[in-house]
Automatic annotation (TrEMBL), chain A:
SUPFAM superfamilies, A to Z: MalF N-terminal region-like (SSF160964), MetI-like (SSF161098)
Protein name: Carbohydrate ABC transporter membrane protein 1 (CUT1 family)
Entry membrane topology: Multi-pass membrane protein
Domain ABC transmembrane type-1, first and last residues per copy: 65-276
Cross-referenced Pfam families: BPD_transp_1 (PF00528)
Keywords assigned by UniProt, alphabetized: Cell membrane, Membrane, Transmembrane, Transmembrane helix, Transport
Segments crossing the lipid bilayer: 12-35, 65-90, 102-123, 150-174, 195-213, 225-246, 258-277
PROSITE patterns the record matches: ABC_TM1
UniProt cross-references to PANTHER family, sorted A to Z: ABC TRANSPORTER PERMEASE PROTEIN, ABC TRANSPORTER PERMEASE PROTEIN YESP-RELATED
Subcellular location: Cell membrane
From TrEMBL, chain B:
The species this protein was found in: Marinomonas balearica
Keyword annotations: Signal
Protein name (Swiss-Prot/TrEMBL): Oligogalacturonide transport system substrate-binding protein
InterPro entries in UniProt: Bact_solute-bd_prot1, SBP
Residues forming coiled coils: none
Domain of life: Bacteria
GO cellular component entries: periplasmic space
Length: 293, 428
């Protein structure tokens, strides 16, 4: 019995060690560091709540938080809607459907790579591909990366474009919807739209919820795209919070303040997730539930 | 007997090596920032080193300027910095506050020939009296212009601030809206405007004694107004316009490559990467240093261009010293390196390269250095002038002005106010 337990612990030890060394230790350390003034090189100096108090008078903190929320609220609905739409289309039994499923997933394999962000910059640059394209129709070049609103749109679009992982999960959920329910609805004379809204959507709400939580937490931590495409500009219009944390800690050598910012982001994401979970009982239907309650 | 002697000799040699603490490196790591031409030259110098010392392999880590400091900072904080690194003049107070952040190079003076370097230059690499780094070359920001673009505009290079201001409208009229006499980013503008203020008032930018900006509110407004005027007069593109091409190194932008941006206020040691990226046959040329009538000081930003240092955590300081000496003082090393880090300070390197015709007065970096040497240099530059947070604050104000979020006055006042905390912390 005990031997089995030891063996079990031995098997999971790589994960446990990894969790302690790479997650738990930095997690606790960053909390302690957030109460210090620490420039990475010299010994940290305890400053109490100074870093958190300074945040209240820091314009960049508010700007960055606002921009991050804007990014999250723009990206998530667009991405989930797009992923669900494509998954719905790819769920039909069409010729060559496997090829299309693979093709639509490819942008996600590329992930949040720097190379893709560089490509994005080349597309949206003033002399880039997009302006050359719209130029064919006689439209004047648009400063996609120089105007705050357009810059946010350009950065958002990159994340929306990488909808593959959410799409695959939606696709799996759609394939699990019992065909018998559609057949019964068809006999009752339901339209395609009615079937989609009254059968498909309610039955996949747990997956919508899962994708929503996963994508939201990722979006709050987005870094690569604004760093490479716009460097947070213009005029801090795409200065997402993770970028601010990174620059504060590693460019301005204020690791104490950077850690405090990171903890505020953690708390914001935690509250957002908690609210989402609380709200889920009103709109997420698990099998066996009665009316979603 | 023979066998015993053999064993004894191994023991003696082994013991003597252990007693000196010498450990032969299997692999050294070397890092630097720069453009493609510098990367190629340094890689060639490293290959020559590996040929001379076949037992030591060198792994090179190089990036552009952007992000290099952050990368190095995390490496140093994690004790994983390279054995040999290119470092910057103003990074010494960051990484080696008391002089113990890098190896003391005088301890390896039997390997690195320090006598090749002028005393004053070596001093610039010291912190708290410890020789933390060796300056590779000296540099200053000066004016370089795309001579083809200026010829197309039908203008001679400006000699006064007023002539530069007037050039913008002529560029716009003759070449079009996309053409500007110069292009300047935040760092360049800060240095250029500082030069203007020194020529006009003789006041340095940083007051180290009181840990603040040395300017009054009126001076600060004038400092920001100069930028606003340059944008309004079409002398330089606004930060908003530059941002529309995305985040990249200036010399990688198409308008630079195509000659739409006609000049730059840049380190003479870095100018070749800007020149190399121009679409042929366009070339750059050295311009006169803009001077106000009656100015007795050019207000140059003059400093060591880059320095080499040995990481504090290296296991192979002797081999790291060998590598530094090779690229700076060994003919095979400095020949491969050429002028990609400016005109070498090392006497043997400079003399040899002059004799071999590599250092030519017409080279942009050399011509720049010769010019810098004759310009009046009275005021020094504080190491805190290049503080990264101060620069980011300036760029924030600059962008706020360009996007209409702040007036010149508001930007100047906010800069003065926020800079206090930054400088107080930096000089703690």
């Amino acid at each position: 019995m005990y031997e089995n337990r030891r063996l079990g612990l031995a098997y999971i030890s790589p994960y446990i060690i990894g969790l302690i060394v790479f997650t738990a230790f930095p997690f606790i350390s960053s909390l302690i560091i957030s109460f210090t003034e620490y420039d990475l090189i010299n010994t940290p100096e305890y400053v109490g709540l100074d870093n958190y108090e300074y945040m209240l008078e820091d314009d960049t903190f508010y700007q960055s938080m606002w921009v991050t929320f804007a990014y999250v609220f723009l990206t998530i609905p667009l991405k989930l809607a797009f992923a669900l739409f494509i998954a719905f289309v790819l769920n039909f039994k069409l010729r060559g459907i496997k090829f299309f499923r693979t093709a639509y997933y490819i942008p996600s394999i590329l992930g949040s790579s720097v190379a893709i962000a560089v490509l994005w910059r080349a597309i949206f640059s003033l002399d880039g591909l997009l302006n050359s394209f719209i130029g064919v129709f006689g439209i004047e070049p648009i400063s996609w990366l120089g105007e705050p609103v357009f810059a946010m749109f350009s950065v958002t679009l990159l994340r929306v474009w990488q909808f593959g992982s959410a799409m695959v999960i939606f696709l799996a959920a759609l394939q699990n919807v019992p065909q018998s329910q559609y057949e019964a609805a068809m006999i009752d004379g339901a339209s395609k739209w009615q079937m989609f809204t009254k059968i498909t959507i309610p039955l996949i709400t747990p997956v919508i919820f899962f994708n929503f939580i996963m994508q939201t937490t990722q979006a709050f931590q987005e870094f690569t795209a604004p760093y490479v495409i716009t460097a947070g500009g213009p005029a801090k219009a795409t200065y997402l919070f993770s970028l601010y944390i990174y620059e504060t800690a590693f460019k301005h050598f204020e690791l104490g303040y950077g850690s405090a910012l990171a903890w505020v982001l953690f708390i914001v994401v935690a509250i957002f997730t908690a609210i989402s979970f609380k709200s889920s009982k009103y709109w997420v239907f698990y099998s066996g539930d009665k009316g979603g309650k | 007997m023979k066998k015993i002697k053999k064993i004894m000799s191994f023991v003696v040699i082994g013991g003597s090596l252990m007693s000196t603490g010498y450990v032969q490196a299997d692999e050294l790591r070397m890092s630097w920032w720069g453009g493609n031409s510098r990367h190629e030259a340094t890689n060639a110098a490293v290959k020559a080193f590996e040929k001379k010392y076949p037992d030591i392999a060198v792994k090179t880590e190089y990036t552009g300027w952007g992000g290099h400091l952050e990368r190095l900072t995390t490496q140093i904080a994690g004790n994983t910095e390279p054995d040999v690194m290119q470092t910057n003049w103003n990074w010494l107070p960051i990484f080696s506050k008391d002089g113990d952040g890098y190896k003391d190079l005088t301890e390896y003076s039997d390997i690195i020939d320090l006598s090749q370097f002028p005393e004053s230059a070596l001093k610039a690499g010291q912190r708290n009296g410890v020789q933390n780094a060796i300056p590779i070359s000296m540099a200053a920001r000066i004016f370089y212009y795309n001579k083809d673009t200026w010829a197309r505009a039908g203008l001679d290079f400006p000699t006064t601030w007023e002539e530069l201001m007037a050039a913008g409208a002529i560029f716009q009229e003759k070449l079009g809206d996309k053409f500007f006499p110069m292009v300047l980013e935040g760092n360049d503008i800060m240095a250029l405007n500082r030069s203007y203020m020194i020529q006009k008032y003789g006041i340095p930018f940083i007051d180290e004694k009181n840990k603040r900006i040395a300017y009054s509110e009126e001076h600060m407004i004038e400092y920001f107004q100069l930028y606003a005027d340059m944008v309004a007069n079409h002398v330089i593109p606004s930060s908003k316009y530059i941002a529309s091409f995305g985040a990249a190194n200036l010399y990688e932008y198409k308008p630079w490559i195509n000659g739409e941006w006609g000049g730059i206020y840049m380190w003479n040691s870095a100018i070749n990467k800007y020149n190399d990226n121009l679409k042929p046959p366009m070339k750059m040329a050295l311009g006169p240093y803009l001077t106000k009538t009656g100015a007795t000081d050019a207000g140059l930003f003059y400093k060591p261009a880059q320095m080499f240092a040995i990481g504090n955590n290296t296991d192979y300081p002797e081999d790291a010293a060998k590598l530094i000496n090779f690229v700076l003082n060994d003919p095979d090393g400095f020949r491969a390196m050429g002028l990609k880090r400016g005109v070498p300070l090392s006497k043997v390197a400079r003399d040899t390269l002059v004799a071999e015709g590599v250092i030519k007065n017409k080279d942009l970096a050399v011509a720049g250095l010769n010019y810098i040497n004759v310009l009046p240099k009275k005021s020094g530059v504080s190491q805190y002038f290049e503080n990264p947070k101060l620069h980011d604050l300036f760029e924030e104000m600059q962008q706020d002005m360009d996007h209409g979020n702040k007036t010149v006055e508001e930007a100047a006042k906010t800069f003065l106010k926020k800079s206090k905390r930054i400088l107080r912390k930096a000089m703690k």
